[in-house]
Amino acid sequence: MTQSPDESPARRNHPSKLFVEVTTHCNLGCAMCVKQTKHHGMTEGVMADEIFSALTPAFPHLEALILNGIGEPLLHPKLESFIRRAKELMPATGWIGFQSNGLLLNEGRAASLVEAGLDRICISMDAASPETFRRLREGGEVGDIEQAFRALTAAREVHLASRLDIGIEFVVMRDNIRELPEVIRWAARRGASFALVTQLVPYDEAHISHVAYDNNTDEAVALFEEWKQIACQEGIDLRRYGEVAWRYSRTPEEQRIVDFVARMKEHALSRNIFINLEKLLARDEEWFAEATEIFDKARAVAIEEGIDLKLPELVPRQKRRCEFVEGGGAFVSWDGNVHPCYFLWHNYQCHVQGWNQMVRPRAFGSVAMRGILDIWNDKPFREFRENVLLYDYPHCFSCKLAPCDYVQADEFAQDCHIRSEPCGSCLWCMGVFQCLQ
Ligand code: SF4
Ligand code: SF4
Ligand code: SF4
Prior knowledge:
By secondary structure, the protein is α/β, with parallel strands linked by helices. It has helices at 49-53, 79-89, 107-116, 130-136, 142-158, 180-188, 218-234, 241-244, 252-270, 277-281, 285-305, 323-326, 372-377, 379-390, 405-408; strands spanning 17-20, 64-66, 95-100, 120-124, 165-172, 194-199, 308-310, 329-332, 338-339, 348-350, 357-359. A nine-stranded mixed beta sheet has the order 7-6-5-4-3-2-1-8-9. The protein has a two-stranded antiparallel sheet with strand order 10-11. Helix 2 (79-89) packs parallel to helix 3 (107-116). The mean pLDDT is 95. It binds iron/sulfur cluster (3 copies). The site of one iron/sulfur cluster has 15 residues, from helix 12. Residues 394, 396, 399, 401-402, 404, 406-407, 415-416, 424-425 line the site of one iron/sulfur cluster.
């Protein structure tokens, strides 16, 4: 099949990015990790050589090969061999990278990774202060990251042909966000050229209070701000809506509030904006003003230090875009199963929308049984990607009925738009979560 170079990566006849989980094992016990939650259903394992070899037909087409999922890639004894083998077959413009907690990065390991041809490494660093670091990354120390940076920069200097980019990943939470500007400065001065910041995925109910993103979308917040001003001019107290909305008999003042909200909802509907008044009224404006200021400061530090900074949204975007599908990504588990995205890679529970959501992995086949390109081009996987690109999904995030029976089913079958992909209840496409890609 001939393909236009402009064709969306999702529609090409090969994946353009492969995310490969080389191991699920880890040498840390981070408090916020899905592996630490009681109800995850992940099966631990290490990718066998034959499974990695089965990915070979995809390598000549790859823009990027990212060698991590849940787990620490440096624990895989053949990581360097995987890098070397993929590098030989990948286009010269393609890159290979992974995220790591950095604990195992001593001089010898850094040198062997650089020799193998590693292009990008992203080290987890969620705090600059030793106390916060220890609390968040149980078993790790800031000193370990310092050592990792020393080893990597030294290895890069020795291997003149190396094009290794070193960066950090910072998971933003309410209790560490104030350290972000300092962490960026710290990393830049030790050789980092990029900083990737993501919001916390709350895998456990206890994580919800740490979440730093808004419970409303950007368009809902903007519309609500407009109407709040009008309410103020008209002397309407919107906070009373919950109390008066269901009254059988209302005073003229109460009726004005109800009519006002009805007008606001109509306006939102006419602009295709989904609002949840309860969530909008509960919005912690002071917090978002402070978080915005911190992000601005982080941007200023990044410019000052010459580091490339990618910040997540503080307020989820109403206009969705799935970077995984749009970028032509395929996700391969350690056992060879092929998945469409980060969200549907594992078996776990999360609370990204404030309620308990069961997430089951969506797999389109295993490279242990079939070729990677066959799986990619097979009808079910193609249809999945085409459907995602339509973005015709409900907005569960703003839905007053959430969690409904559709999204709480043990096995998701469909949503209220009769769509069989759970994208309506996924926040990855709303700009709050990011990963190396
Ligand atoms: S380093 Fe990563 S995989 Fe390991 S416990 Fe921490 S978050 Fe989980
Ligand atoms: S699937 Fe359920 S939660 Fe999502 S928008 Fe539809 S009714 Fe609401
Ligand atoms: S579930 Fe989320 S991450 Fe997965 S394809 Fe849908 S929008 Fe993308």
